[in-house]
Write a structure and sequence with these properties.
Blueprint lengths: L2 E5 L4 E5 L7 H21 L4 H27 L3 E6 L4 E6 L6 E5 L5 E5 L7 E6 L2 E4 L6 H16 L1
Antiparallel strand pairs: 1-2, 2-3, 3-4, 4-5, 6-7, 7-8
Length: 157
């Protein structure tokens, strides 16, 4: 599951992050293998002017793949932190770009909801201080359902 609980004597913190299947080492391997496979057509026409045309398309394709994966890695840097303290519940959503979005409420009045009628399946929200905020928008429906149980227990204790 892409979340982790951590505890100190004063608070419990839940950190959530999106799935991250491509490691930096995997990125290196993927780019290297892609470059090797794209170079096979160039080897067939090596020494002719056609090789230069193919080389341009090869470099454009490799650059496009590189940029797409790097953009994906930037989006994966987003995360959420939910802090449960005796006096307050705080949620901070840190997007890939821009300032963090923060919410705070009294823990005695915070409720957890798992809605079926939300914009996504198993829409997980916290309600308190006159607002309803989404938790774990990047989790799968099954993970949101499991987290709902854990959050319900954590807020009761």
């Amino acid at each position: 599951m892409p979340y982790r609980w951590s505890e100190t004597p004063a608070e419990r913190t839940l950190t959530l992050w999106p799935h991250q299947s491509l490691t930096p080492r995997g990125f290196t391997w993927f780019i290297g293998l892609t470059a090797a496979m794209l170079s096979f057509p160039i080897l067939a026409v090596l020494g002719s002017p056609v090789a230069w045309v193919l080389m341009a398309f090869f470099l454009i394709a490799l650059w496009g793949i590189w940029q797409a994966i790097k953009t994906n890695q930037l989006h994966r840097s987003m995360h959420e932190a939910l802090t449960l303290e005796p006096a307050a519940v705080r949620l901070a959503h840190v997007p890939a770009k821009g300032p963090p979005l923060e919410w705070e409420a009294n823990p005695h009045w915070v409720t957890v909801h798992l809605r079926e009628d939300g914009p996504v399946e198993k829409y997980l929200t916290l309600r308190g201080s006159g607002r309803e905020v989404e938790v774990g928008r990047f989790l799968t429906p099954e993970e949101r359902e499991a987290l709902y149980g854990e959050l319900s227990v954590a807020l009761r204790t």
